[in-house]
Design goal:
By secondary structure, the protein is an alpha/beta fold. It is built from 14 helices and eight strands. It has an eight-stranded mixed beta sheet with strand order 1-2-4-3-5-8-6-7, sandwiched between helices. Helix 2 packs parallel to helix 3, helix 3 crosses helix 14 and helix 6 runs antiparallel to helix 7. The model has no long low-confidence stretch (mean pLDDT about 90).
């Protein structure tokens, strides 16, 4: 167990060092490194690294992304380091298939232990068409002073939460409601802010995918996230509408089929607009695509920790005693310290990647 747990890191710098070493020793090739203009908390560089495993001319490609939500990159990075160290790609020997690793898609958030980037942008709400009117969130507009208050102490906090509950018609405030979780484009200092233009990481992602994904017969993506739920389990969300086959059948344990069009009769991003993996059809137009997002489940749920952490960086002192306590809560919420949790996630990730690679290798377009 310790061997696998050691693939996970305590700092962004350590995570990057372990990833680069695993690439060099695990049969992969480092393709490029991209420096963000902003530094980490210790003055360290914040870098997105891109690596390749498999034949350069592979017709099928699996893209793995860690750190879209900065602090959540610890888990994805550890899973990918474990995969490389254990040489699972060589063990599987899948034909004509390769992996593209994008490590620390949001390196500034990763380094600072935040979900957002250097501009307080939630990258997974930033992939919208910024030339058009931004998605509306009327409930956030009505509740913004309660969702993102300038004060984070009692009795004011309870009053803010009560106001949220009254507006929603609920007995208590719901931190997973669209008002809070669904993204907003009004308040640059608020939670789940989607930005007014493509962020640095958005532009970089599009460049990387266009360069390495164009011309492939089939491209699949798995974007790694962490979030509340049953500790140690994971949920794989998959949208295979553009895959030209039921690629959801590749996976033995698909928990949720991400198909909002069928569920809601409207656009696939209607509830949480701007998700990174939904940019692939724009970048690789006309190609067969399987879009996946995995949530590695941590204990607890909701986003009060996110609200508190946002207040801290907007109105408080991140290095105060209160600040350090809130940041520790945020870290445990999205990156549990338990070595058992880390090992469980690594092995579930191995299984998921093996299924994805075997699925890509045997994929054939078919009528649905």
């Amino acid at each position: 167990m310790n061997r696998v747990a050691d693939c996970f890191a305590q700092t962004y710098t350590e995570a990057r060092r372990k990833f680069l070493r695993a690439v060099a020793e695990g049969g992969a090739v480092l393709l490029s490194s991209h420096l963000n203009a902003h530094k980490g908390p210790e003055g360290e560089d914040c870098v997105t690294d891109v690596a390749w495993q498999g034949p350069p001319d592979a017709r099928r490609l699996l893209i793995l992304v860690s750190g879209t939500h900065g602090i959540e990159g610890y888990a994805g990075s550890g899973c990918h380091v474990a995969w490389l160290r254990e040489r699972w790609f060589e063990r599987l020997a899948v034909p004509d298939t390769a992996i593209l690793f994008i490590h620390a898609m949001n390196p500034h958030g990763f380094a600072w232990g935040r979900r957002v980037n250097e501009d307080n942008i939630d990258l997974n709400r930033n992939f919208v068409d910024h030339t058009k009117a931004h998605p509306a969130n009327d409930d956030y507009a009505a509740l913004r002073d309660h969702i993102d208050p300038p004060d984070w102490q009692e009795p004011a906090l309870s009053a803010h939460n009560a106001a949220i509950a009254r507006h929603l018609g609920l007995p208590r405030h719901d931190v997973m409601c669209k008002a809070i979780h669904g993204g907003q484009y009004l308040n640059p200092r608020g939670v789940f802010y989607g930005g007014r233009e493509p962020a640095w990481s958005n532009r970089l992602f599009r460049e990387i995918v266009a360069r390495h994904g164009a011309g492939r017969e089939h491209v699949a993506i798995i974007d790694y996230h962490t979030g509340g739920g049953v500790l140690g389990f994971c949920d794989l969300f998959i949208d295979d509408d553009l895959a030209q086959a039921r690629t959801r059948d590749w996976f033995a344990n698909v928990t949720v089929i991400a198909d909002d069009k069928a569920a809601h009769g409207k656009d696939a991003q209607s509830e949480t607009p701007g998700n990174l993996f939904y940019a692939l059809p724009q970048i690789l137009s006309g190609q067969a695509l399987t879009l996946c997002l995995v949530e590695l489940r941590t204990q607890g749920g909701g986003h009060d920790e996110v609200r508190a952490e946002n207040w801290l960086f907007q109105h408080g002192d991140p290095n105060s005693a209160q600040g350090l306590a809130l940041r520790a809560q945020m870290r445990e919420r999205f990156y549990p310290a338990s070595p058992q949790w880390r090992v469980m996630q690594a092995y579930q990730s191995h299984s998921m990647l093996a299924e994805a690679l075997h699925g890509l290798a045997r994929w054939q377009p078919a009528s649905r």
